[in-house]
Amino acid sequence: MLDEQVLAGLDFEKGDGLMPVITVEAGTGTVLMLAYMNRASLDRTLATGLATYYSRSRKALWVKGETSGHYQHVCSITADCDADTLLLEVVQEGVACHTGAHSCFHHPLYRNDER
């Protein structure tokens, strides 16, 4: 079910036509990656059910898994309170990271064991 009102309220202009997208794994909530979408990539994602992002380096749309086979099947898309960031919940085929790691977030920087 698509909420047209939420869709119409998305603010792509805050990021010069791009919106950050946090992608998490369905079922576990594991953060898989951060990427960007423009309106065209969001539209393609909604039409196909496959996560489609905008590559800032290539300046083109890219379907996650198009070359690796590690597709992301979208379960839900949620906008944040400011309508300028999206949260994708996906079923991940294979790994999300181009390094071969399951998640792109695998380099611990800091940990406070007292909490």
Molecular structure report:
With 115 residues, the protein is α+β, with helices and mostly antiparallel strands. The chain has 2 helices and 6 strands; from the N terminus they run H-E-E-H-E-E-E-E. It has helices spanning 4-9, 39-48; strands at residues 19-25, 31-37, 52-55, 60-63, 72-79, 86-92. The strands form 2 sheets. Strands 2-1-6-5 form a 4-stranded mixed beta sheet. It is globular. The mean pLDDT is 97.
Helix content: 10-25%
Largest sheet: 4 strands, mixed
Ends distance: 40 Å
Number of helical stretches of at least 4 residues: 2
Radius of gyration: 15 Å
Please give the number of β-strands. 6
Beta-strand level of the residues, as a percent range? 25-35%
Pick out the low-confidence regions: none
Order of helices and strands: HEEHEEEE
Record the strand order, biggest sheet: 2-1-6-5
Shape field: globular
What structural class is derived from the secondary structure elements? alpha+beta
Average pLDDT number = 97
Set down the secondary structure blueprint:
Layout: H1 4-9, E1 19-25, E2 31-37, H2 39-48, E3 52-55, E4 60-63, E5 72-79, E6 86-92
Parallel strand pairs: 1-6
Antiparallel strand pairs: 1-2, 3-4, 5-6
What's this, in brief?
The chain has 115 residues and is α+β, with helices and mostly antiparallel strands. The protein is 14% helix and 32% strand.
